[in-house]
Design goal:
Helix content: 55-70%
Strand content: 5-15%
Distance between the termini: 34 Å
Shape: globular
Number of domains: 1
CATH superfamily: Winged helix-like DNA-binding domain superfamily/Winged helix DNA-binding domain
Number of strands: 2
CATH topology: Arc Repressor Mutant, subunit A
Radius of gyration: 15 Å
Structural class: mainly alpha
Number of helices: 4
């Protein structure tokens, strides 16, 4: 995951959680999380970059709308990242109040 940006990682998490979302749905979720607007072009450029990197699949829902889903490599990257994060969260939670 170190070869992608934090914004791209957030996109992967959104795609993983929504099950084949269209780009506008990804944008809506990011805006809700960030609490501010996210440029349409930024979302779609990063979706394309993640697709080119083999982390998400891009398919056609109809002639005007695409859907996105994680590839097996994308899913593995998220799982590895979550395991790494959990190591530190577990340590934090296990520490006595002090």
């Amino acid at each position: 995951m170190n070869e992608i940006t934090g914004f791209q990682r957030d996109i992967l998490y959104v795609v993983a959680g929504l099950g084949d979302p269209k780009g506008m749905r990804v944008q809506d979720e990011l805006e809700e999380y960030y609490g501010s607007s996210v440029l349409h072009a930024r979302v779609y450029q990063n979706l394309d970059d993640l697709h080119e990197a083999g982390l998400i699949e891009k398919g056609e829902r109809d002639s005007r709308t695409n859907y996105y889903r994680l590839t097996p490599v994308g899913r593995e990257r998220i799982e590895n990242r979550r395991e790494w994060e959990q190591e530190y969260v577990d340590d934090l939670v296990a520490e006595p109040d002090g």
